[in-house]
Design goal:
The protein has about 190 residues and is mainly alpha-helical. It contains nine helices and no strands.
């Protein structure tokens, strides 16, 4: 797993890294590799597992606050999320890439965002039940939009920004989530 991490961090594309290249970098035999992994996608998924768990744990720890303090608290939360994504950019890029053609990685990636989506949906529903989130909010659609869209926004931002805009992105994500879903006013029917 460390060998794959090093190759990705050096700028190599996951699709272009062969198992032979991983074996050479790790200094292990093919038999040893296959005694522990089913293939290079398995290495990637296992490499990403701890990262996935830390992001989901972070998501489950966030609790909405009241008023604008909630948006500011959310911004600090997003700064942590962006920092984790930035620190593991090469691996996350590989996961997004492999998810487009590898069903095992796609399932892992989908479950990853699905877990975050579920956590956000539960929080939105609890806030709705408590009367702090608009009753007309469709929690399923809202969580899907903000989680899946937010993930893509973070990924795109990290590819294009050197880190100087991380605080601004975190603030805007927080405000969009907070004022667009968590504390948006009830809207008249369309």
């Amino acid at each position: 797993m460390s060998a794959l991490q090093r190759l990705l961090d050096s700028g190599e594309s996951f699709s272009e890294i062969s198992i032979q290249r991983i074996l050479e970098e790790a200094g292990v035999s093919r038999a040893t590799f296959y005694a522990h992994f089913t293939g290079k996608s398995d290495v990637l998924v296992r490499l990403t597992y701890a990262l996935r768990k830390s992001l989901l744990t972070l998501a489950r720890q966030w609790e909405p606050g009241a008023g604008d303090a909630g948006a500011e608290s959310f911004a600090r939360f997003f700064e942590k999320v962006i920092a984790i994504h930035r620190a593991h950019q090469a691996v996350l890029t590989a996961v997004r890439e492999a998810a487009t053609y590898d069903p095992a990685v796609s399932d892992f990636y989908t479950a990853d965002l699905g877990g975050f989506d579920e956590a956000v949906r539960r929080t939105l529903s609890a806030e709705q039940t408590a009367g702090r989130t608009a009753a007309d909010l469709d929690t399923v659609a809202a969580s899907r939009i903000i989680v899946w869209g937010g993930s893509q926004a973070i990924a795109q931002h990290i590819q294009e920004d050197d880190g100087g805009g991380d605080t601004a992105l975190a603030r805007e994500l927080a405000r969009i989530w907070w004022h667009g879903a968590y504390r948006r006013p009830a809207l008249p029917p369309l």
